[in-house]
Amino acid sequence: MKTIAIVSTAGGTGRTTLTAALAVLLARRGRQVVALDFDPQNMLGAQLGIDGLAATGVSQALLDAQTAWHGYTWRNADGVLFVPYGAVSAAQSAQCDARLGAAPRWLADALAELDLPRDGVVLIDTARYPSQQAEHALRCADLALCVTPPEPAACATLIARLAALRGACAHLRIVVNRLNPARDMQRDVLAMLGAALDDNLPLAQRVHVDAAMPESFARGTWLFDDAPHSQASHDLQGLANWLDAWLTEAAAPLDRPDGAS
């Protein structure tokens, strides 16, 4: 089992939508997928096709140590096993943060209870970095995808947090989301972001903006089903293919020298 954290350093990046889309696309490739909502906004379930916002979820296990977090699970039509965060008040959210701050291995220990095959994957949608939720997800992630739109404020925030993100997860990749190459400003911002990266931290993928995405969500469908030949659908499929190949390589047993036992 491998764990992939999807993080962002700004709000409104499309991180939750991307997490849900990748969970479904990997499930359709035959992967056993768990999608964990680790963001108090509690929106991942709506993206995965569950009616309404889940009232209970992993937050209940944070608030009550006697509560089993895996008791709050759903499975969507594509076979993705989904764990919601659950609805919390401001006071409860602060209590969850305090519990996570006091127990640095809480999420890692919780994920260790999952019974997934070697080629299974957990996708974690986190609260905006820095946060207790994002720190926990990065700490136990085999791979982190940091999502950013090519906008000045979002990329400036990402660049400012880049060193901390690289220190938090050994395998970090940047995903540029909602790219509109017709905008000169976005091309300038991409150049600024590229100058801050290096060969050890390449872009994993670029996902183009598509006005049909909100309409697909409103209908409870997926853009890559409604418009499979659109650029954004092609981008999402490409990112899913990249992750699928990464998971296959990561799950492969290490080659042993001849005669080793």
TrEMBL record:
InterPro entries: Cellulose_synthase_operon_BcsQ, DNA_Partitioning_ATPase, P-loop_NTPase
Membrane-traversing stretches: none
Origin superkingdom: Bacteria
Pfam families, sorted: CBP_BcsQ
Identification of the protein by name: Cellulose synthase operon protein YhjQ
